[in-house]
Predict the structure.
Amino acid sequence: MPELAKSFEPAAIEARWAPVIESPAVSAPTLDPSRPSFCIQLPPPNVTGTLHMGHAFNQTIMDALTRWHRMQGDNTLWLPGTDHAGIATQIVVERQLQEAGRTRHDLGRAAFVDRVWEWKAASGATITRQMRRLGASVDWSREYFTMDEKLSAVVTETFVRLYDEGLIYRGERLVSWDPVLKSAVSDLEVESEEEDGFLWHIRYPLVDPDGRLKAATGLDSLVVATTRPETMLGDTAVMVHPDDERYAELVGQTVRLPLCDREIPVIADAYVDREFGTGVVKVTPAHDANDYAVGQRHGLPSIGVLDLDAKVNDQAPEAYRGLDRFEARKRVIADLDVLGLLVETRKHRLMVPRCARTGQIVEPMLTHQWFVAMRKPGADGQSIAQRAIEVVDRGEVRFVPGQWINTYHHWMNNIQDWCISRQLWWGHQIPAWYGSGGEIFVARNEAEARERASAAGYTGPLERDPDVLDTWYSSALVPFSTLGWPAKTVEQDLFLPSSVLVTGFDIIFFWVARMIMMTTHFTGKVPFRDV
């Protein structure tokens, strides 16, 4: 017998075995309906750089499972791919441009997208090369990229179908806005951490021309506690708890909004924590998610006083227009102090929301975006979310370890409509065209958009929506988009659902749940058996 080498020499071994492992004779699946089938969808790595040890560990588990089932004679498919990763990839390329003293706006959209494609070619090739060196026995003949032509066609097809079903809509809603990216970001991409800050107590004078209120209550003003004095320029009410006896007689009265020539009402709502601060809070529906909900309940107007750069806009008094939000905060506090309306400033620990991608403090912003309705009943009477909850409850999808089902249910049972539009240049452009009067025509291409416009009686010019889709929208489709849907294929019969998904708990929200929702909605099947 030949003597074993004293040390492991990977280069020689890799060179010998890689061609064998990658050959179709080894990696291509049999398509025999009489055999058991086994399939794994590779969680597609982002084309933002290179693989790391976590990828290698994950892929080793998948490789072992794949090889075992292949040796059992099963129809065995391990399906590889990479993800375009929207925001993350755009940020990588923008930073490269910044190092050269340029921005994407210097290039223009078309040239910038070409630049990202160049980066994708380099990064994707590196990832593929690393996987091949690891000896991952995937079927390379089926490799995909989430912006490939075929997969992009599926993205468009699902968008149009959901829109036609009334399950995708465009609306003005409060979203998490990154003023550096200048894009909405998913609430799931916002990380809130406790930081040192301040709590300012500000006096809002009561409108009490005859002194009656002061005589009855002993109050000539309400003192509001806030961590965001700059947004008071957009206040549309102050609020107390309905059971707070201190302020019961003032509900329904009005106060003068400091620094602004406006009067706003005093309302009562159980959302108020009587023990926090003074028990009186300001209501700014256009700049706080909870205040937005309060505003909806009480029919309050929403006055946005920050633009998309997080600078004070023309809705605010002239003295503050054009100031950055934090500069405006300093100016507002100083002016309140001069007027004798700043009661006190206290140190305060508060949760600060930051974009996980850029680290910037996100701003709740009222903007027009595209949404997928999560709770609206579809044609069969079930909502997208409810169907996804039920298949897990019935055990059609199992979580290992089992406690992660609780995480899944917590999110699904508190789910909000999914904001799927992003104000980026890299990604799947939204298949919607606008008429000159704001008419919306969603279609698979411009020719179909013109047909739909004509059928609606509109014959004027059309302009395509410049926004792109959230990257998680296309990755939610991979369980079936990679198997030839919407055509009926033998691969769907054999490999949908796939057998197992090996992934991280941190993307149960981002990816796992959305694959379950989209796959059950469009195919009637679950995407996988075990997670």
